[in-house]
Amino acid sequence: MIVLLSIFTENNFMHIKILFFGIVKDITNSNSLDLEVDNSINIERFIQLLQETFQDFPTIGDFTVAVNEEYVEKNFVLKNNDIVAIIPPVSGG
Amino acid sequence: MKENISIILTSDKLNLTICNDFVKDDACGGIALFVGTVRNHTKGKEVLRLDFSAYKPMAIKEMNKIAEKAIEKFDISKIAIHHAVGNLKVGEVPVIIAVSSAHREASFKACQYTIDTLKRTVPIWKKEHFEDGEIWVNPHP
Q: Where are the domains of chain A?
């Protein structure tokens, strides 16, 4: 399923895969989505788009984010084909 | 996989002997083991079982990072971090940490460091199942 997250006037977009885990998986009712987003979008803006798309999506302080299996900060800029994972508070061990 | 680090994330039952035998080393005077077990209660409520899920490739990477950090910080020889995913009943084992060192202080400290760090950083989640429902555990609300 491809979801369009923003309206753009030029053909400047990139493909992002997003993975959901834990309670966020329940909130979005999904394991993963494939998305088209604006070029050079950062994590903070990306999360805002998710909040606009999904009711009850948690606020950015309530989870961490990984891109391509590494934790990142909210100013991290996404590239085409990045894999973003929404990581709610972990509880392993 | 390095010869002094064993990282496993599996839906099979964990095996304490395998962890112990991996870290055993003739140059070491001791092995410290941490065995996590599923507790039968949480905040006064009876727990029926736990359901562990993981972001597998990243969980393995993060466990490797912890193992490498433990080797760097403490004077240890070998380390094993094994974690189970899937449904686990009360009394079953979701995690084993095994560490060997020439002298015991390093093993005790590295073992504690490893489980404490795993619980903060590794993308694994547990869902508690009770008689009347289930919740995702949040240890840092």
A: 2-87
Look-up of token digits 């885990």: A21
Contact A92 B122 (CB under 8 A): yes
Which residues of chain B make contact with A63, given a CB cutoff of 8 A?
A: none
Please name every residue paired with A66 in a beta bridge, in sequence order, or none if there are none. A71, A85
Please report the domains of chain B, with CATH numbers, ordered by start residue: 5-131 (3.90.1170.40)
What pLDDT was estimated at residue A7?
55
Q: How many whole angstroms from its chain centre is CA A60?
A: 11
CATH class of the domain defined by A2-87: alpha beta
Per-residue pLDDT at A10: 54
In chain A, what residues touch B141 (CB-CB under 8 Å)? 89
Low-confidence ranges of chain A (pLDDT < 70): 4-11
Pair B38, B90: CB distance under 8 Å: yes
Which positions of chain B have pLDDT values less than 50?
A: none
